[in-house]
TrEMBL record:
Highest taxon listed in the record's lineage: Eukaryota
Keyword check for Transport: no
PROSITE patterns: VWFD
Organism: Oxyruncus cristatus
InterPro entries per UniProt: Dev_Signal_Modulators (IPR050969), Ig_VWDE (IPR057885), VWF_type-D (IPR001846)
Keyword Signal annotated: yes
Protein's recorded name: VWDE protein
C-alpha cells in the first residue's frame, strides 16, 4: 500500500559542492524500514532518465550536481519505495517527489507590457546554492543580461529597455525555492509608431565562472510582449498653423512665447516662441524656438 512517504527535494551545499537532498517520512507502522531511492531527471517532455539508485536505512538521500550526470537546467525527481528486512518482496507503492528545477530562472517566465513608460520588475534567481570554488572567487554568479527583438524587420529603436546590463547573484541562505536573487526593471520603449504588438526575449548568461557546473548553464529566456498604444500628435508649423491632438486647426499670427500644450496628468509641457518673419509687407509670425519639459 501507499505509506504516505511524501518525498521532497531541497538543495544543499555539501563540502562546498551543490547537492540535492531527498527527504521522506518514516512510516510509523513499519519497524526498521529500508528505502529504495531512485533519482531521475526529465530528459524530454513526459520522459525521465534514471541517474542514481540506492538502498538505504536513512530517511534521506543525496545526489551531487556534478555537471555531467546531473546538470543545471535539469528538472529532477526522487521516487521512494519502502520495505522491511523481514519481507523484502513486499514493497510499498513508489511515491514521487514534485519535479525540482535546479538552476537559474526568471520570474515571471513571461511578461506582457505596454508602451506607457511603466517599469516592470523581473526577478532572476537561482534555485540551488552558489558555491565558492576557490579562494580568489567571491560567492556570486555574474549574469550578463541582453534583449533581442524577434520580429524586428528593420533597424530601429529596441522594443524594451533594461535597467541593468549585469546582475550579481550573491550567496544567501536558501528559502522558498530561492538561494540567490536579483531584480532588473523592464520598460517598453515608446516608439511613436503604430507597429502592432511586438515580441522580445530577455536572456541571461553567466560570465567569468571557470567551474563546469555554471559555465555551461544558460537559463531559459523570458518572452516579453510589448503592446502597442496609439500615440497622440499635435503640430505647429510655418507661419504657425496649429493642428491639435483631436484634429482641430488654428492659426496664430502673434509674436511672443506661447504655451503650446500641457499635460493635466504628468509633468509635461511644450512652449513655442514665434518671431516676426513677414517684414514690412505683411504681419506674419514664424516658429523660431521650442522648449519641452
Amino acid at each position: 500500500t501507499s505509506l504516505s512517504l511524501q518525498p521532497v527535494i531541497t538543495p544543499e551545499l555539501v563540502q562546498g559542492r551543490v547537492h540535492l537532498k531527498c527527504t521522506y517520512g518514516h512510516p510509523p507502522s513499519k519497524p526498521h524500514p529500508q528505502y529504495v531511492v531512485l533519482w531521475s531527471r526529465l530528459s524530454s517532455p513526459g520522459k525521465r532518465e534514471q541517474i542514481h539508485r540506492e538502498t538505504t536505512l536513512e530517511s534521506f538521500s543525496y545526489v551531487e550536481m556534478d555537471g555531467a550526470n546531473l546538470r543545471l537546467g535539469d528538472t529532477v525527481f526522487c521516487t521512494v519505495t519502502a520495505f522491511t528486512r523481514d519481507t523484502p518482496e513486499q514493497q510499498s507503492l513508489p511515491e514521487d517527489s514534485k519535479g525540482f528545477y535546479a538552476g537559474i530562472k526568471f520570474l515571471p517566465e513571461s511578461l506582457q507590457i505596454a508602451e506607457d513608460g511603466k517599469e516592470h520588475v523581473l526577478t532572476v534567481l537561482s534555485t540551488v546554492p552558489i558555491a565558492c570554488p576557490g579562494q580568489d572567487d567571491s560567492c556570486k554568479i555574474t549574469l550578463q543580461l541582453s534583449s533581442e527583438d524577434l520580429d524586428s524587420q528593420s533597424p530601429g529603436p529596441p522594443n524594451i529597455a533594461l535597467s541593468a546590463c549585469q546582475v550579481d547573484l550573491l550567496q544567501a541562505p536558501c528559502s522558498e525555492s530561492s538561494c540567490a536573487a536579483a531584480t532588473v526593471m523592464v520598460t517598453a520603449v515608446t516608439d511613436f509608431a503604430q507597429d502592432g504588438n511586438r515580441v522580445s526575449h530577455v536572456r541571461a548568461e553567466p560570465v567569468g565562472r571557470r567551474d563546469l557546473l555554471w559555465r555551461a548553464h544558460a537559463p531559459k529566456d523570458v518572452k516579453v510582449t510589448v503592446r502597442d498604444l496609439p500615440t497622440g500628435n499635435c503640430y505647429s508649423f510655418t507661419d504657425p498653423h496649429i493642428i491639435t491632438f483631436d484634429g482641430w486647426r488654428y492659426d496664430n499670427y502673434k509674436i511672443g512665447t506661447f504655451l503650446l500644450c500641457r499635460s493635466v496628468s504628468r509633468l509635461f509641457e511644450v512652449h513655442v516662441r514665434q518671431w516676426d518673419c513677414g517684414g514690412h509687407r505683411s504681419a506674419t509670425a514664424c516658429n523660431c524656438g521650442v522648449a519641452a519639459q
